[in-house]
Amino acid sequence: MSFHESADAACESKTCSGIKTVIRPKAKDIGGFEVRRALPSTEARTVGPFIFFDQMGPATFAPGTGIDVRPHPHIGLSTLTWLIEGQIMHRDSLGYVQPIRPGEVNWMTAGDGIVHSERTPDDVRAKGHSLLGLQVWMALPADKQDIDPSFQHYAASDIPTVNLDGALATVVAGTAWGATSPVAVYSQTLYADVKIDAGATLEVPADHEERAIYVIEGTIKLGDEEFDEATMIVLREGEPVPVETSSGAHLALIGGDRLRHPRRLWWNFAHTDIEMIEEAKKRWQSGGFKMVDGDDEFIPLPPR
Fold first, then answer.
1. Nearest-CA neighbor of 229 among 199, 202, 250, 254?
2. Tell me: the pLDDT tens digits for 25-66?
3. CA-to-CA distance for 136 and 48, rounded, in angstroms?
4. How far is CA 247 from CA 91, 113, 132, 217, 250, in A?
5. Cα distances (angstroms) measured from residue 168 to each of 106, 120, 200, 224
6. What percent of the chain has a predicted confidence (pLDDT) above 90?
7. What was the pLDDT predicted at 29?
8. Is the pLDDT of residue 291 over 80?
9. Is 162 exposed, middle or buried (0-12, 13-18, 19+ CB in 10 A)?
10. Side-chain half-sphere of 133: how many Cα atoms within 13 Å?
11. Is 286 helix (H, G, I), strand (E, B) or coil?
12. What angle do CA 144, 141, 23 make, to 5 degrees?
């Protein structure tokens, strides 16, 4: 019996409240920097518009070191990096140069094509520093996959917070608990950062069609099941789900409307039409994308 089947059976007997499936991503070391990828996975390819979900770190960098993600292209999606610790400098082919810090949002929409890089800022690199954050990609609606690329930055003071009974929720994008983020999403979206006090219970409302909980820190309990950090729990549709924690927890909630048109995902490209992905591959190989001013490096197209 698969875990998905056993989880469904357990939920029918009420031993795990509202759980559809569970994803436990393995850590991958990419040269002193740890990444855990929860989406896409064999258990769930997408949750709402979310087609990619990575936890970056926690990592500690010695003075003079940091991350260097060289310029690379995207099509058909929007990216959002949510930092808990550290800083990253964003540069893109539209000419934007924007650091991102904890609590801030860089919202980049690739549309028919954008190139960007992500590096540790020079002043941060010079000192020892830590990094912990989440990076997500959201698929654009089928009729907006080929729109013009764009970029917006939102200060931490722009992002709404909601005081709940024993918890504090930051609505990073979309709508939750009656609050709406200013981030210009293209479909119904749930993305919240939630810190729950020790001994408190958080009810995840059933306002969104698809939902998932990702445990950043701490341990939570859903029904009789306990889940530790670096675990994603995909929830059943249409059911409010109570989340308990005895020692406190830090969570990310994601979700939204189910994708009605399945996405093909290859490297950094997402689209409903495989021909558009093939065209983007050829465009990157031939130098057809506008590049990032001031950053002459690039990531070559993977061989596969």
1. 250
2. 988 876 667 899 999 999 999 999 999 999 999 999 999 999
3. 12
4. 39, 45, 21, 10, 11
5. 22, 29, 11, 24
6. 90
7. 76
8. yes
9. middle
10. 22
11. coil
12. 140
**Left (φ > 0), alpha (ψ -120 to 50) or beta: where does 278 sit?**
alpha
Q: Report how far apart the first and last C-alpha atoms of the chain are (Å, whole number).
A: 33
From residue 181, how far is each of 92, 189, 192, 261 by CA, in Å?
24, 10, 10, 25
Tens of pLDDT, residues 72-120: 999 999 999 999 999 999 999 999 999 999 999 999 999 999 999 999 9
Side-chain-side CA neighbours of 63 within 13 Å: the count stands at: 2
Calpha distance 94→89 (Å, rounded): 15
Cis? peptide before 58, omega within 30° of 0: yes
Q: Which single residue is written with the structure tokens 């949750």?
A: 47
Q: How many CA atoms lie within 13 A of 46 on its CB side?
A: 21
Sheet containing 68-74: give its strands across: 68-74, 114-119, 88-92, 97-100
* Cα–Cα distance measured from residue 70 to residue 297, given in angstroms and rounded to the nearest whole number: 6
Is 234:22 a contact under the CB 8 Å cutoff? yes
Give the rounded distance of the alpha carbon of 196 from its chain centre. Answer: 20
